[in-house]
Description:
Layout: H1 16-25, E1 29-32, H2 35-44, H3 53-67, H4 75-79, E2 88-91, H5 95-105, H6 110-113, H7 119-134, H8 139-148, H9 150-155
Amino acid sequence: YPRLHTKETRLSKFNQTEIKAMLGSYTKVLFVRDPFHRLISTFLQGMGISSSFSSFIQEVLDSGMHNGSVAWEPLVSLCRPCLIQYDYVVMFGFLRQELGHLLHRAGLLGGSLLPELTDSQVQWTYRWLSEQMFSELSAQQKKQLTHFYRWDLAAFPFSNSFLSD
């Protein structure tokens, strides 16, 4: 398609005909991650200015959805899964299994291309981190986070998320 190789990266920069052509010609893969794990990762990477996790969460909640960072914006608003029919949704924590299947479906040799992924260790670590960091939050912050990510929690199977409780 003529404009496929432009510098524009957001679909909103294209007209409806171009968007339809692009979406119809690509295999669409969406990588999703528990929103609370995304917050932990963002905090640990130092992307917030706060010194404590609780202060960082308050910063996220105060910024809201429209003034916040892509690092913590709800996935539903970033990736529009209700408008775009993704061919694959890959869950963080099951990468080895799901990427292997995806590469096989794409006709690639999955096993030789995959890095060594230890999903069970990652899941255990994030479970432990979640317990520690969730305990730092006030009841009000927990309630506000659950509300902030309500559409992500409804759209994706994050059944073990601390925000689902």
